[in-house]
Amino acid sequence: xxxxxxxxxxxxxxxxxxxxxxxxxxxxxxxxxxxxxxxxxxxxxxxxxxxxxxxxxxxxxxxxxxxxxxxxxxxxxxxxxxxxxxxxxxxxxxxxxxxxxxxxxxxxxxxxxxxxxxxxxxxxxxxxxxxxxxxxxxxxxxxxxxxxxxxxxxxxxxxxxxxxxxxxxxxxxxxxxxxxxxxxxxxxxxxxxxxxxxxxxxxxxxxxxxxxxxxxxxxxxxxxxxxxxxxxxxxxxxxxxxxxxxxxxxxxxxxxxxxxx
Amino acid sequence: xxxxxxxxxxxxxxxxxxxxxxxxxxxxxxxxxxxxxxxxxxxxxxxxxxxxxxxxxxxxxxxxxxxxxxxxxxxxxxxxxxxxxxxxxxxxxxxxxxxxxxxxxxxxxxxxxxxxxxxxxxxxxxxxxxxxxxxxxxxxxxxxxxxxxxxxxxxxxxxxxxxxxxxxxxxxxxxxxxxxxxxxxxxxxxxxxxxxxxxxxxxxxxxxxxxxxxxxxxxxxxxxxxxxxxxxxxxxxxxxxxxxxxxxxxxxxxxxxxxxxxxxxxxxxxxxxxxxxxxxxxxxxxxxxxxxxxxxxxxxxxxxxxxxxxxxxxx
Lengths: 261, 315
Description:
By secondary structure, chain A is of the alpha+beta class. Chain A has seven helices and twelve strands. In chain A, a hairpin with a 4-residue loop joins strand 9 and strand 10. In chain A, helix 6 (223-234) crosses helix 7 (236-257). Chain A is flat. Chain B is mainly α. Chain B has a two-stranded antiparallel sheet with strand order 1-2. Chain B is globular. In chain B, 51% of the residues are buried. At the A-B interface, strand 5, strand 6, helix 5, helix 6 and helix 7 of A face helix 1, strand 1, helix 4, helix 6 and helix 9 of B. Strand 5 of chain A pairs antiparallel with strand 5 of chain B.
């Protein structure tokens, strides 16, 4: 009996240890999470932040290895089609003259990392996993413009997105709370588009991708904002009629309130 | 929550937060001026919204809704005073609806071509510039005449111009007019068109056109013009809701409330002022807005590039 209890305690201890340290692994493993999987846009929405955190789980063998580990967090909004215009002077007026259209660019994009991206991995890796603003695939639709021109448009597009807070890239923005625990907060500005966002956490060591984890973050209008928006898109005739009735009522009410006798 | 966050309200269609008090104040200021000068004020409100960062498409479409509200209270008070020619307003309205439908259709095309901003700017420069200069000239002349002691030239009975020689004449009893429907149709449709493309009611163009071209009596002209604007803008709101889907009901309501309150104060101040002084002020205001748009077109912008998201998300 006593032996049975003893062995049960042993088993529990082992299980507990396994839980704390993560399952026994051969190499580094990544466990990551986000503070909330839903962002609700309400009438007083002025932007928010999400916390991305996690743990690098490793066994005794890898601890002894001296390669420094880097974590990269990429938050990517739903894809959209975007046109960048450039004004030219035509008969003395500044007019949108040339444009380039990108068919599938993220509407929101944020990169956080423990170090400068070029210290973390090679160009090839970064390109393959779309890490970093300059590695976003911005292929213009049906353009025969020279490379110089294409790059100018690309730079202008990225500049505009950064200015509006929709794109950001921050190196050394991920904090290590302990040698294995990390966290970072990503700002979501008030103008973020709605839809499903992909939050990907990458673990690099010595320039090699060891593991990656993905979470989905849903940004959606709720309550009145959602009802209003859906009505305007699904039943535009009803929405338009309501807008007119509201306007007539307000005008009539004002006429009644301020009526001069 | 910070203090700034309390003042912010999220616009569901424009998809951005905006300071409620700023919009309220804008509506109130434009409402004051519209009460003062007896105009709708759309030509001031739309640019103000655009310059404050609201997308041009949303600004234009939403102001059409706001004009419905501001003209509704005006129509009510003129109706009570029997200051509306319903038949004339009806003909103007029918032509206005046609013009407005063409306007909304062209608005959509221009938006997809990326040239909406240009057309809005050019149209503002042209129309506001011309009308501002005409108003300035006319009101200066009136002020000079009053100073030199000459009687102002009023409407002489039986006075005719080329408009009265056109065919398809119709009798409008309330306005004591017998004129061709062609110029009425022309005025109504062009103002309906401009209204839906530029987000303006067009009262400041309609009233002079009705007075100088059609010789509509002064006591009828404003009420009739307001009713036509109400009808045209209601149709424009409906068409924008269906076609461009950019009417923001929250923005519209905030503007309306500010606008109707401001208009009451404006009307009180305006009653104590001389007509030609009001027209001089209005002329200056119209010209300034036009010049502001011209400035943007002529001076090299800080950033030559601009980014626009194309609707219909990628599947």
